Amino acid sequence: MCTRLHREGIPLSFGVHGMSFDRLVSRPPALDLITAIGSQDSYLAVVNTLRSDGTPHSSLVNAAVVAHPVTGAQVGAFVTYGRVKLAHLRRRPALTVTWRSGWSWVSLDGTAQLAGPHDQLPGLDPDHLPGLLRAIFTAAGGQHPDWDTYDRIMAEQGRVAVLINPTRAYTNAD
Q: For the domain bounded by 29-167, which CATH number is listed?
């Protein structure tokens, strides 16, 4: 059974053997479930982007839920500097991120917004990028003994924050 969750405008549906129907249920909100499942396995998540030919490109990242730095809405997020992933997201911002723990999983479909040295996020002061990268890193369970060194390395590597504005979430979790 696959369940699509509802939270703040994210559709909710259930699917059983390819058939689906919409209804509301009493369960943790989608983004809370991401945190619950993600925290059990270092917030490891598979990110799927689309190549120019429409086929999926997958990679493994640490991803979490954070407040959007401009709107304040809760969004999925990860930090990257992968040339291929960024090229895909710049051309086609649709993506899916899946977190798992054991056999339980939750997926988030959405639209990516990028914030980085070459990707200005409207409304975000570029001086706030280091704080955003730290917020995503720590939300995904990361710790660092020297934040000045962390900020310097992130800048040297041209790291980019990927914010996932959710359009749909689904899970097999009870």
A: 2.30.110.10
